[in-house]
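Obj: model holo form, ligand = PXG.
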Amino acid sequence: MNLPAQLQRRTEDYQQSDAAHHIHGFVDQKALNAEGPRVMVRGEGLYLWDSEGKRYLDGMSGLWCTQLGYGRRDLTAAAAAQMDQLAYYNMFFHTTHPAVIELSELLFSLLPGHYSHVIYTNSGSEANEVLIRTVRRYWQVVGQPQKKIMIGRWNGYHGSTLAASALGGMKFMHEMGGMIPDVAHIDEPYWFAHGGELTPAEFGRRCALQLEEKILELGAENVAGFIAEPFQGAGGMIFPPESYWPEIQRICRQYDVLLCADEVIGGFGRTGEWFAHQHFGFEPDTLSIAKGLTSGYLPMGGLVLSKRIAEALVEQGGVFAHGLTYSGHPVAAAVALANLKALRDEGIVRQVKDDTGPYLQQLLHEVFGNHPMVGEIQGTGLLGALQFVEDKATRKRFANENDLAWQCRTFGFEEGVIIRSTLGRMIMAPALVATRAELDELVDKTRIAVDRTARIAGKL
Ligand code: PXG
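Output (holo structure tokens):
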């Protein structure tokens, strides 16, 4: 393989230097240093190549973000043109710029009509940091300053910064200093694991009613908002039962609690709809966005606000003492604009809804529907989750499901496919430009990895 000159170094050189300088995310750094990380050097379409020349089908869109795949020259050209024109300016000093304006015009043309404003950030974590301050400020402005508490869900994920990790429900993150006051949590709607004898519909309602109980316990006059991912991503790609979201919507309206959807993973076509809340049929007051906004080519996120919130902030709020150096960064905005145009004009989101999405779902059911290792298949659009199970009849999970799923992920890498493991679930979320042939390859290689895992688990 032809590598650019700066890559003409041995893999071990990179690994040693990496170990000398980096703390990677969510990994035992000492163990990683001993093993040596994979060095990824090139991407094109759905494929990645490492420094040894090995090719991988990226079944995770990087980290759920490369909607258009790798190597899109229209995005790199948009970045280069904007860099030449105006590489940086900000939205302070009573100033704005064309790139961010054009992006927002397109963004709001894609969103349902009751959203009007956005505060741009650099990431999803930042979007959720901004969320807390914006929601609290909103309640101050409309005369209810005591409404400060945010309710999230156990096992939800909203980012790694302090407030974002507190909103999330990963207890091991809270234990590592990731908690703040005025945040509460309710259970996740994970029927397969926690549904017991209840039907999914009963369980979905039961989980939603926990929100009502929590609001009453804390006092509705103190609760600012409820934040949730329409489906849980990092927590295992868990889809709530159909009864869940309508009940959550009712409760939020009844108690005047803002419904805050974290669309960082679900947004920008992943489910076949532009936004995941549209797939599940509810109407949030705020949307946290990032990842697919730029197809991951540059960091950019944002907090989208409903007209109700934006009007209060604009008309009655005076100065909002909040602002980021890179909010609406022109180069990120130009890339996001080119990305959204491509998703719309090339009919990619529609293709996920009408063609490749149903195709992937059908394939998963054909291949894994009767697999001895798989107890549940969830997904829609270009999302798929396989739940490992020891006993299908009782939904008994393996005691070592985490290790088995991790092993399956490793087998995937060996087979040349990147899939993700969480507890006992294998997850895939390929780029939205995936063809049927690429989806065939993704599912074929995943099946080999799952079969190899099933052999270790004594299921094949
Ligand atoms: N909200 C959600 C729903 C996310 O999934 C964030 C917020 C934070 O975004 P930033 O841009 O600050 O990372 C995320 C991030 C994984 C994985 O392995 C998922 C995320 C990040 C890293 C790894 O599933 N999601």
